[in-house]
Prior knowledge:
Elements: E1 2-3, H1 7-10, H2 15-18, H3 24-38, E2 45-49, H4 55-62, E3 66-71, H5 74-83, E4 88-91, E5 103-108, H6 119-132, E6 133-144, E7 153-160, E8 163-173, E9 179-190, E10 193-204, H7 208-218, E11 221-226, E12 241-247
Parallel strand pairs: 1-10, 2-3, 2-5, 3-4, 5-6
Antiparallel strand pairs: 6-12, 7-8, 8-9, 9-10, 11-12
Helix pairs in contact: 3-4
Amino acid sequence: MHTPGNLYADLAGYYDQFCNEVDYTEQCEFAVRAFECFAHVDGREYLDLACGTGKHLALMQEQGFAASGLDNSAAMLEQAAVRCPDARLLLCDLAGFDQQEEFSLITCFLYSLHYSHPTSALEETLKRAWNALKPGGVFIFNTVDARGISERTIKTQLSEGDTHLSFQSGWQYSGEGEVMNLVLSITRESTEGRQTWHDQHRMTALTLPQLSSMLESVGFEVTLLEHDYRVMVPWNGESFNAIVVAVKPS
């Protein structure tokens, strides 16, 4: 049976298992190192955009940050509230938060900034991140250059008792324009039968130079790093994935 709807809502309880290959610890350790290298601000107030079930929040709390998380999925935030009962959780779109100079560090991992669509919404998200940061604060996120997007599918499988789930995700991009699609599907098989969910999210495609220009027009000082959380190496200008460190001048 095919079930339409939002996978992030319907299957939020399985999200962590689907992302079991993501090294959240490595990402958070990188964020702390980058914060210590680039920030010029007092305090450790932290906001994670598109926080999902709160795994980044929990790890950053262990690093001494006062954590807040934002997501547009109430089901995801319910999971985050269980994991991080002391965190402040905000239900809204990326381009919808309106905090003013509250945070020392903002992150947005798993390419989630691209959910801000169209480009005008992404620009609004960058402005709101700027407004939410204290002077000297840092915005860290990862991104993909549209010129390097390939139609690669990621597949994950897991079993719990007599239930077996398979998960597929992949980007689709025509090679021009600002639209790329994240296509998702999940199949759940159990003694009760087989059920399939399909979902598609329109995302913003842009190049690294375009993104850097947007950030600079907002006022950020921008550093592009190679997409490797184990080290901190300047972007070589050739790869199509990067980690962005954007500093709000003090």
